[in-house]
Specification:
With 205 residues, this protein is mostly helical. It starts with 8 loop residues before the first helix and ends with a strand. It is globular, with a radius of gyration of 16 Å. The mean pLDDT is 95. The chain is built from eight helices and two strands, in the order ααααααααββ. A two-stranded parallel sheet has the order 1-2.
Length: 205
């Protein structure tokens, strides 16, 4: 399996903590919910990229990177749907985890800070997704393991693209802001959650 895994050292160095083992146990206990919420995450990621494309028309690099990202996330969404359909898993409406909403609640409201923070949050979410795909893959059946490992390269690139665009938009050092948002993210990952979701924290039960 290791031969298929790209170098994720930059992501491990970026995040302030790894996914708790209790989340892995919850995911393995609720494989259908993991796929349902994974589909939702891909859909939301595409939506975030499209929203940025509509809002910021003066940055051609951002427009191009977000267009590619949206296409890739929608392709991933289609792949998750195909797996769900093949396995007879229904696609119900489920509540979102507090993860992304809690991160985005930290986004400042004036420009260019709003754009910078939105891009940093994008980088953090992509990095965590990549870390979780890699961490849970060894425990999954062959089809899901292969699929999750296939996502790592694009998720890692999305992380780099978001971070690059955030630095560019700020025009100054953003390390302090990145660390502040990463600390919020670490608390979300390590604190308890009432419901299991792809980005949830430690299950209460």
């Amino acid at each position: 399996m290791s031969a298929q895994v790209p170098d994720l050292s930059a992501i491990y160095e970026f995040l302030l903590c790894s996914t708790p083992d209790a989340w892995i146990e919850a995911a393995l206990a609720e494989p259908e919910m993991m796929l349902v919420d994974h589909a939702n995450c891909e859909k939301k990621a595409a939506g975030t990229a499209l929203n940025l494309m509509f809002r910021y028309l003066n940055d051609f690099e951002l427009l191009n990177k977000m267009s590619r990202l949206a296409r890739e996330e929608l392709r991933h969404f289609e792949q998750v749907l195909a797996i769900m359909e093949k396995r007879g898993i229904a696609y119900p409406h489920v509540s979102a985890s507090r993860y992304a909403a809690s991160l985005r609640a930290e986004v400042r409201t004036t420009e260019p800070d709003r754009l910078v923070d939105t891009l940093i949050c994008g980088a953090i979410i992509e990095a965590r997704s990549c870390e979780r795909f890699a961490k849970i893959a060894p425990f999954l059946d062959e089809e899901l393991q292969k699929f999750y490992l296939s996502l790592l390269k694009s998720e890692a690139r999305h992380f780099r693209d978001y971070l690059h665009l955030a630095k560019k938009a700020a025009g100054e050092d953003i390390e302090h802001r990145v660390q502040a948002l990463l600390e919020v993210e670490r608390d979300l990952v390590q604190s308890s959650d009432g419901e299991f979701r792809f980005h949830s924290g430690v299950p209460e039960h």
